[in-house]
């Protein structure tokens, strides 16, 4: 066969794979409907492990690397779990879903919002905003039913501005979503061979690529309101030498190409986003839940430790504890807390009563489905590894 024919054959196989993945997702939704009716848990990790072992054995018989199959099916299983969770919880956004996000099309927030909508079988319409505060205002005023905010990154840590804004809003956190972030240096195709003297990027992207950027000589790095804004600036340039820090997918929307790839200081760079709306959501009991809150302890020794002891006594898993200065009260702190617990659970209900009695104030920001999907791991059979030396 000629090369062209071989490539056409590969494309035909890829179409079959895509159709099969879509069919698998449809069946996963049917499984979710059955589980919801019978109050079954979303995940069955023993079955997942058994399935993965069986697939690895079948793949080995066909000459496929078990490690390759394990990585592939971990992604497929994660998509199935998140799709089922989304169906069980979200039934109030049929058809079109408008989400207020930072930046224009192509920004990381735009990509995360698009993924959130499509997982819920909704068409996506973005509402571009220039700041985090504008996102909250758009939702508060009803111009968008949902807003998406980046709240922490696996490399650069918490986004403090978002934490500070959450204290002053009446909106509720109703969901979370995660986006794998890969930063690239993007330029116009006709300028890809020219030396770069200026790089534009969002402050968080710049912080996440600090090691790479610090090694560049005679290059100025300038902050922008969003990654999409940075790419738009570069796309409008008529002279070479300017570049943007952003994703390849976003760059394609502005006809930009990458000249340097995967620049984050740490591998596996991910950003966690939260979704906010005017009313809280109901989280089915069979879904893993996260409850987020703000509390202020009394300004006395051991006050925070006493509050944490309450959580431990009720066997509540503390996922995150973030302190922020309290405006107008020098040297006093607010604490943002994430717990792996359902807001309606007896353990949390009792702990909340005790915390209210011992803190200056406590405010629950929201209870929502936990989208952290732990990968299914199995021990690869020795026959799949091959003989040792």
Total of domains: 4
Shape: globular
| CATH architectural designation of the largest domain | Up-down Bundle
Q: Report the sheet-strand fraction.
A: 15-25%
CATH-defined fold name of the largest domain: Chorismate Mutase Domain, subunit A
Extract low-pLDDT stretches: 384-389
Count of alpha and pi helical runs: 13
What is the CATH C level class of the largest domain, in words?
Mainly Alpha
Organism: Aliidiomarina haloalkalitolerans
Domain ACT: 292-369
Function: Catalyzes the Claisen rearrangement of chorismate to prephenate and the decarboxylation/dehydration of prephenate to phenylpyruvate.
GO cellular component, one term: cytoplasm
Short descriptors:
disordered C terminus; D-Maltodextrin-Binding Protein, domain 2; Chorismate Mutase Domain, subunit A; 389 residues; 13 helices; five-stranded mixed β-sheet; alpha/beta; Bifunctional chorismate mutase/prephenate dehydratase; 41% helix; six-stranded mixed β-sheet
What is this structure, in a nutshell?
It catalyses: chorismate = prephenate; prephenate + H(+) = 3-phenylpyruvate + CO2 + H2O. By secondary structure, the chain is an alpha/beta fold.
């Amino acid at each position: 066969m000629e090369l062209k024919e071989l490539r056409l054959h590969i494309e035909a196989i890829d179409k079959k794979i895509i159709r099969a993945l879509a069919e698998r997702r449809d069946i996963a939704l049917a499984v979710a409907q059955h589980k919801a009716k019978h109050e079954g848990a979303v995940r069955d990790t023993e079955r997942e492990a058994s399935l993965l072992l069986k697939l690895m054995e079948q793949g080995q018989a066909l000459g496929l690397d078990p490690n390759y199959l394990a990585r592939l099916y971990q992604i497929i299983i994660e998509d199935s779990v998140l799709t089922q969770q989304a169906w069980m919880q979200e039934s109030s956004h049929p058809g079109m879903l408008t989400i207020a996000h930072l930046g224009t099309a192509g920004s990381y927030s735009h990509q995360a919002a698009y993924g959130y909508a499509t997982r819920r079988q909704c068409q996506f319409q973005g509402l571009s905003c220039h700041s985090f505060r504008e996102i909250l205002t758009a939702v508060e005023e009803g111009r968008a039913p949902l807003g998406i905010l980046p709240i922490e990154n696996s490399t650069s840590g918490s986004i403090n501005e978002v934490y500070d804004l959450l204290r002053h809003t009446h909106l509720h956190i109703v969901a979370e979503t995660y986006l794998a972030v890969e930063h690239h240096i993007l330029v116009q195709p006709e300028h890809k061979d020219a030396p770069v003297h200026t790089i534009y990027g969002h402050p968080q992207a710049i912080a996440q690529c600090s090691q790479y950027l610090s090694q560049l000589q005679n290059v100025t790095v300038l902050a922008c309101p969003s990654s999409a804004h940075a790419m738009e600036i570069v796309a409008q340039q008529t002279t070479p030498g300017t570049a943007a820090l952003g994703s390849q997918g976003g760059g394609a929307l502005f006809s930009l190409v990458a000249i340097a790839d995967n620049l984050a200081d740490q591998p596996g760079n991910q950003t966690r986003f939260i979704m906010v709306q005017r009313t809280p959501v109901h989280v089915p009991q069979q879904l893993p839940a996260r409850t987020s809150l703000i509390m202020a302890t009394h300004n006395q020794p051991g006050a925070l430790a006493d509050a944490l002891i309450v959580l431990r006594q009720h066997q509540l898993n503390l996922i995150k504890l973030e302190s922020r200065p309290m405006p107008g009260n020098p040297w006093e702190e607010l604490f943002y807390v994430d717990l792996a617990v359902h807001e309606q659970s007896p353990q949390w209900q009792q702990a909340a009563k005790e915390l209210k009695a011992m803190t200056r104030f406590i405010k629950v920001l929201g209870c929502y489905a936990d989208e952290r999907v732990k990968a299914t791991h199995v021990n690869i059979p020795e026959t799949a590894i091959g003989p040792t030396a």
